[in-house]
Amino acid sequence: MTTPDRVSTGNAGLDTILRGGFPANRLFLLEGTPGSGKTTLALQFLLDGRAKGERGLYITLSETGEELDSVARSHGWSLDGISLFELSSADEVLGRGRDQSVLHSFEMELGGTVKLIEGEVERVGPCRVVFDSLSELRLLAQDPLRYRRQVLSLKQFFAGRHATVLLVDDLTTIHGERDQHLHSLCHGVITLERLTLDFGAARRRLEVQKLRGVDFIAGYHDLVIERGGLKVFPRLIAADHPSPFVGEPVASGVAELDALLDGGPLRGTSTLITGPAGTGKTAITLQYLFAACERGERAAIYEFDERIGTLLYRAKTMGLDLDKHLENGRLTVRQMDPAAISPGEFAFLIQSEVEDRDCRLLVIDSLNGYLAAMSQEQQLILQMHELLSYLNQRGVATFLINPQQGLVGTMSLSSLNISYVADAVILIRFFEAGGRIRKAISVLKNRAGGHGDSIRELRVDARGIRVGEPLTEFQGVLTGTPSYVGAGGPLMEDRS
């Protein structure tokens, strides 16, 4: 939202990061490697001005007008109403006699180019200017000192003309080093990066390196380029999103399961369900999702591992009709592409789910899928901690599914050690008794309240989730190889 002392960047995410946009009538540097999105963001900046009735000028020293128009069309934009000053041909601009001067040709080209630019600015009288790019100006100058003087001259030229100027640079080095002098000349510096991963789509991110007099959101912010422009995902800061709520228990609809957590996990807490593949972790969360939707609440599951069709079919075999809640909008099921999602985009999707749809219960299935999607990220545990803190502050009941390694599993919780962050931990184990593979469920911790310390048998079948009596006649159930010490008491499936 543009204010008298701020100018919108044309990008909602970047405006959020800058706490409202660019300070008006200042000079800013937009730098980045090729393919990082500089031109797209610069065009968004000018198009936003056009929508507000402000004159815009795009000065291009590298790309032709046809190339810029092609970029705009790829996003569904038209550049009508934006002045374009193209300097792709030095012969046309400066004439063919320039090499006859006693001055070096590059001195004539540099001086003549700058004069033409200043003349065009005087003629158009723009409120917003994009100068693309400084690399060509640097080549014309040839000497670092002459280049810096020319950039300073441009800054002084624009200073009294009530224009917000965006200088675009492609991170060209001078004698193998970055030109930090340019950073000191500009009121603000925004850096775009493009990262190539070992597998999957390239990742892009943005950092505001400086912005004088503005308390911006520091750090890296993930972004994607899609039809319609750049989509920037501001880094999630949980402390910025406090919300009052009642920490009441969240029931599953299965009395024996709720009793394990003294009525159920509380709102504003996270519950980790861990165990080997096939023990029923997802089935338990489906029961919680169904119960929440039946109460009229909105719920969501972010699925990294399983196909949506398979998930809904499994719910039907348990007697849970999730399809009707998908139709009435109470339930959202999102299929995540592990090769394309970034931590920032994932956090943004969840934040939108909570704030736009008032989601009250959320499932992430699974942490292994999340870890695979972000395998080259360095601070996953911190990012997950911030995300869970945000959800807790918004009063959302969160369930995290954590498959243990191996079919039988070990007591190790995962390579992403999130167990200390979770408020409650539910452990499910296979064990063998009476010639059958059975399942046992127990609660290892519950910060938010009391919990049972017994180990009980778990059944998942057409009758849904069933929790049996404590396995008092077995020892070593959690090891997977228990010893029977009872007097022949029946197990759960033998009871009517």
CATH architecture of the largest domain: 3-Layer(aba) Sandwich
Report mean pLDDT, rounded to a whole number: 87
Count up the helices: 15
Shape: elongated
Q: What's the CATH H-level homologous superfamily of the largest domain? A: P-loop containing nucleotide triphosphate hydrolases
Briefly note the CATH topology name of the largest domain. Rossmann fold
Q: Describe it for me?
A:
- Residues 5-246, 248-481 form the KaiC domain.
- GO terms for molecular function: ATP binding; hydrolase activity; protein serine/threonine kinase activity.
- Keywords: Hydrolase, Kinase, Phosphoprotein, Repeat, Transferase.
- This is non-specific serine/threonine protein kinase.
- The chain is of the alpha/beta class and 496 residues long.
- The protein has two domains: 6-235, 3-Layer(aba) Sandwich (Rossmann fold), CATH 3.40.50.300; 243-494, Rossmann fold.
- It is 31% helix and 26% strand.
- The chain has 15 helices and 22 strands.
- It has helices at 12-17, 38-51, 65-74, 90-94, 105-124, 134-141, 144-159, 181-185, 255-260, 281-294, 308-317, 323-327, 343-357, 367-373, 380-393, and strands at 6-7, 22-23, 27-32, 56-60, 82-86, 128-132, 164-169, 188-195, 203-211, 220-226, 229-233, 270-275, 298-303, 331-335, 359-365, 397-403, 424-433, 436-446, 456-461, 464-470, 474-475, 483-484.
- The strands form four sheets. A nine-stranded mixed beta sheet has the order 5-4-6-7-3-8-9-10-11, with helices on both faces.
- Helix 6 packs across helix 7 and helix 13 (343-357) runs parallel beside helix 15.
